[in-house]
Specification:
about 400 residues, four-stranded antiparallel sheet, alpha+beta, nine-stranded mixed sheet, 12 helices, binds zinc ion
Length: about 400
């Protein structure tokens, strides 16, 4: 089998897709079911059809492009990622896994491979949480991690429901049809840029992911008492922002002292009310994002944060409430797929390293219904979710080649 990736075409397709965007180049903005996203979907479907793939779309807009295997009844081998992009993002996050996956299939077709299992490219709907506030919408529903009833409650910031948005986009069948049976995929492999600096720093071209960190996210509200910045004496105050500041530092301390570098916690939003220069903050809304590769360790960190919350609330006489947005379990990648990826790297003489994915991906949810693994390629300075995100055509082609080799071995 003489596998060859058409590096130039793949690079040109990534550029072309980047042009379908709501931002000025080189930035890319493609919010799920926006006109740009719908145009990009149509563009991708046309390319998949040109490659002879059979298209199926489910009611939440996940797109399946299947290269039929010799045994139509055998479970498929899947690959894919997402093409939605947060505002002012780059060209490569998600896209490398979708167009790299398509090119991997075309490379197998060109060299005359005839796999037993079908190989299917999967485009996930709304990996990014931008529009509906929750990431990995498509894969959550495919895996059953999100129920149709929960999905029907989703609304965007304009108050438009997912139901309305998806119907307008042409997806009208009941959401109950989205979930896949757990025997649907024999294996699922996602190619992705690392979104971190390790591969580049170590000058290793390929990363084989052995586990995906478990994210949890909470909304925290601190309620104190407002008042005049001049008139209320310091001893009398129940300043919500001072309490929030103490909680933020406690959160940082919990993550730093967990004993593992894989524990990370971030407060990324801090809204202060009423937000006036001469007014004591009466209410603060925070978001907490906490992740770990080990569920027990993450849960222990969350308990420590909970204890800090109670102590600070009592000490400062404020009310601190929290609301769970999500708390997902980490994924262990399937040893058989990790091994297939390692062998594919070795076969082509590429160095590789085993690593953890600290960002989460659709594969996290696919792991609930299928054996999964991920393949990472370097991205410059580890930058992602910004316009100067960059992966070289050589690195992308190398990733697509190893993906093709792996798909062939899993589908044989
Ligand atoms: Zn991504």
């Amino acid at each position: 089998m003489n596998l060859e990736i058409d590096r130039d075409r793949l690079a040109a397709e990534i550029e072309e897709l980047a042009g379908i965007s709501d931002a000025e180049p080189p930035a890319v903005t493609r919010i799920v079911f926006s006109p740009a996203d719908l145009k990009a979907r149509a563009w991708l479907i046309a390319r998949c059809e040109k490659a002879g793939l059979a298209i199926r779309q489910d009611p939440v807009g996940n797109i399946f492009a299947r290269w039929a295997g010799a045994d139509a009844n055998a479970a498929a081998v899947g690959t894919g990622s997402h093409i939605d992009a947060i505002p002012n993002a780059g060209k490569y996050d998600g896209v490398v896994g979708v167009l790299g996956g398509l090119e991997a299939i075309r490379a197998l077709q060109r060299c005359g491979a005839r796999p037993k299992h079908s190989i299917e490219l999967l485009l996930f709907t709304s990996e990014e949480p931008t529009r509906f506030g929750i990431g990995c919408l498509g894969s959550r529903m495919l895996s059953g991690a999100m129920t149709p009833d929960a999905a029907r409650k989703l609304v965007d910031k304009d108050g438009t429901s997912l139901e309305e948005v998806r119907r307008k986009a042409g997806y009208s069948a009941p959401l109950e049809e989205v979930k896949l049976p757990s025997c649907y995929y024999k294996a699922f492999v996602e190619l992705h840029i690392e979104q971190g600096p390790l591969l580049e720093q170590k000058q290793i071209p390929l990363g084989i992911v052995t586990s995906i960190a478990a994210p949890a996210s909470l909304r925290i509200t601190v309620e104190g008492a407002g008042g005049h910045a001049g008139a209320v004496l310091m001893q009398e105050r129940r300043d919500a922002l001072c309490a929030a500041a103490e909680l933020i530092l406690a959160i940082e301390d919990v993550a730093k002292s967990s004993g593992a570098i894989d524990t990370v916690a971030t407060v990324g939003i801090c809204d202060v009310f009423p937000g006036a220069v001469n007014s004591i903050p009466s209410r603060v809304r925070l978001t907490l994002d906490i992740r770990d590769t080990d569920l027990a360790r993450r849960d222990a960190a969350m308990r420590a944060i909970e204890a800090a919350r109670q102590t600070i609330a009592a000490k400062r006489q404020v009310a601190i409430s929290e609301e769970f947005v999500n708390a997902d379990a980490p994924a262990r990648c399937a040893p058989a797929i990790v091994e297939a990826l390692s062998q594919a790297c070795a076969k082509h003489g590429f160095a590789s390293m085993k690593m953890v994915s600290r960002a989460y991906h659709d594969s996290l949810f696919m792991s609930r219904i299928a054996p999964v693994a991920m393949l990472f390629i370097p991205c410059r300075n580890g930058y992602s979710h910004r316009p100067d995100e960059y992966a070289s055509p050589e690195d992308i082609a190398r990733g697509a080649l190893v993906l093709a080799e792996t798909l062939a071995s899993l589908a044989s």
